[in-house]
Design brief:
By secondary structure, the chain is mostly helical. 73% of the residues lie in helices and 0% in strands.
Length: 280
């Protein structure tokens, strides 16, 4: 559960995106970029908040809010490129994937901030001898996202757009605006995942952080029963799909399957799951 929290949170946003008939390949690179921003904000030696004399809990709160806002904006960028730039989701998010990571790597070549111990306590504090706070956050977000999907107009509009975009437009839904909201929500989930990631790990490898998370999130969503054609899916299914992928990873690691082959098996699972959907 702990090991799959970050990708699991991202999968919740990805579920909305795929149900709407889209795809988001930028989530891993976005996590890396947001993590770098968060580390910069938190740094107590050269960070902007420390320079203003803001440290401790107030600095953590401000940093978290700013990162959540920034993640939403980055998601909105994806949504705007797709809705108003008329780019296919695959192309738009593939482009931003490369932009987010390469710019982050360029700006962090001489970047060596430290994460305060107090911030790490957000996710690393032990309860009953176990580090379970990341899992608690994940479950809380699942409940909130499930309510949004089932009880709000955004959830119904997401299904309508994924089922038949032209019909949704003719029924009065502002498809471009809703798509921007969906991708903004995905960016918000990535931002939340980056906060948990940094609080749990305490550092970030900007070359590799978040790499493959887009594949893990997509696989979890598809295994959980969401249709790649859009219009059908479940947040609870995405959660169960992530658990299935996590158990599979643990089994493969336990029996000594090489990491590269583990990724090949994930790819095969995605192909097989989509083939089953086609038969339906």
């Amino acid at each position: 559960l702990r090991n799959n929290t970050y990708a699991g949170v991202i999968a919740l946003g990805m579920c909305f995106v795929i149900i709407s008939g889209g795809i988001d390949l930028s989530v891993g690179s976005m996590l890396c970029a947001l993590g770098a921003m968060l580390m910069y904000l938190l740094d107590e030696t050269a960070g902007p908040l420390a320079a203003m004399g803001i440290t401790g809990a107030p600095a953590y709160a401000i940093s978290i809010v700013l990162i959540l806002i920034m993640g939403t904006i980055m998601g909105l960028l994806n949504g705007a490129l797709i809705s108003y730039g008329k780019l296919p989701p695959f192309i738009a998010t593939l482009g931003t994937q490369k932009i987010f990571r390469s710019v982050t790597q360029q700006l962090t070549k001489t970047f060596n901030p430290t994460v305060p111990q107090g911030f790490k306590a957000i996710a690393s504090t032990r309860i009953a001898g176990q580090v379970i706070l990341p899992v608690i956050y994940w479950v809380a977000v699942i409940i909130i996202m499930h309510i949004i999907f089932k009880k709000t107009a955004l959830g119904r509009q997401t299904i309508a757009i994924g089922s038949n975009e032209k019909a949704a437009k003719l029924s009065g839904i502002n498809v471009g605006k809703v798509k921007c909201k969906i991708y903004a929500l995905s960016g918000l989930m990535v931002a939340f995942a980056s906060i948990i990631y940094l609080a749990r790990i305490g550092s970030m490898d900007f070359a590799n952080a978040g790499a493959g998370y887009e594949m893990d999130a997509i696989a979890a969503v598809i295994v959980g029963g969401t249709s790649m054609a859009g219009g059908k899916g479940s947040l609870i299914g995405a959660f169960i799909g992530m658990l299935i992928m996590g158990v599979m990873n643990n089994i493969l690691n336990s029996v000594g399957v090489p990491t590269f082959l583990c990724d090949a098996i994930k790819g095969a699972i995605i192909i097989f799951a989509v083939m089953l959907q086609k038969k339906d």
